[in-house]
């Protein structure tokens, strides 16, 4: 075989080897791309699974909270349940629950937590339509602080307690627990629940307490009449 034939043969073999190598590289790149897609799909699946699991837990928490709110007609117990929801489900470390006096149009604190962080929170009161809390009550719209410093008059969040369009009070949140840095999607669901279910539970408990007092007064009056007549 001549030198020229050997060179051609070598060149042909070299080109085939080059083509084969390039084909291997393309196949490797294709497999790497497929592997990346599979990894992304697995990550998406894992994230979706975590999201669904969190939503299920949130739904369970919302159901339990709703059930607890309507499990009693005792006013103080209803308020205590609202406090437990704010503390354990929302993660509020400092907050105040204010109810509206229809006669004076004044919002007054009936329960609170975190007095050490915000002195005066236990006696917090404001007029309807005045300041952040009063405006939340008059407009029946929630308030969330985007920037600025939190104060008694300017809470981190303020949620109206309302029955349809009637506002009976406001929940003001001033500080979150250390491990919680911001509100989550489930918090807003809980705020919606508190705006409606907690308002209904509190209103019902107040009506029940008033009816009990009236019944006791009537009974005392009847007892007095009975005693006098005998």
Write a brief caption for the model.
The chain is of the alpha+beta class.
Structure explained in plain terms:
With 230 residues, the protein is an alpha+beta fold. It is built from four helices and six strands. The protein has helices at residues 3-69, 75-90, 131-139, 185-229, and strands at 92-101, 106-113, 125-127, 143-144, 157-163, 166-176. The chain has a six-stranded antiparallel β-sheet with strand order 3-2-1-6-5-4, sandwiched between helices. Helix 1 (3-69) packs antiparallel against helix 2, helix 1 packs parallel to helix 4 (185-229) and helix 2 (75-90) packs antiparallel against helix 4 (185-229). The mean pLDDT is 82.
Chain-wise SSE layout:
Elements: H1 3-69, H2 75-90, E1 92-101, E2 106-113, E3 125-127, H3 131-139, E4 143-144, E5 157-163, E6 166-176, H4 185-229
Antiparallel strand pairs: 1-2, 1-6, 2-3, 4-5, 5-6
Helix pairs in contact: 1-2, 1-4, 2-4
Overall average residue pLDDT: 82
> Helical content, roughly?
55-70%
Order of helices and strands: HHEEEHEEEH
CATH architecture descriptor text of the domain at 70-216: 2-Layer Sandwich
Decide which structural class fits the backbone.
alpha+beta
Identify low-pLDDT runs: none
Entry keywords:
6-stranded antiparallel sheet; Beta-Lactamase; 230 residues
């Amino acid at each position: 075989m001549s030198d020229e034939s050997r060179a051609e043969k070598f060149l042909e073999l070299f080109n085939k080897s080059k083509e084969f190598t390039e084909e291997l590289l393309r196949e490797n790149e294709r497999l790497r791309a497929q592997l990346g897609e599979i990894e992304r799909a697995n990550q998406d699946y894992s994230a979706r699974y975590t999201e669904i699991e969190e939503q299920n837990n949130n739904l369970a928490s919302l159901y339990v909270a709703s059930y607890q709110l309507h499990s009693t007609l005792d006013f103080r117990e209803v308020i205590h349940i609202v406090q437990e929801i704010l503390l354990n489900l929302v993660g509020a470390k400092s907050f105040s629950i204010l109810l509206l006096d229809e006669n004076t149009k004044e919002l007054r604190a009936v329960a609170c937590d975190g007095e050490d962080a915000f002195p005066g929170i236990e006696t917090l009161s404001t007029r309807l339509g005045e300041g952040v809390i009063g405006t939340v009550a008059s407009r029946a719209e929630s308030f969330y602080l985007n920037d600025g410093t939190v104060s008694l008059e300017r809470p981190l969040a303020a949620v109206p307690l309302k029955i349809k369009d009637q506002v009976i009070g406001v929940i003001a949140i001033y500080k979150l627990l250390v491990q919680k840095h911001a509100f989550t999607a489930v918090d807003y669901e809980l705020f919606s629940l508190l705006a409606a279910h907690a308002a209904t539970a509190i209103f019902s408990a107040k009506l029940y307490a008033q009816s009990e007092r009236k019944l006791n007064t009537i009974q005392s009056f009847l007892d007095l009449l009975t005693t006098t007549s005998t």
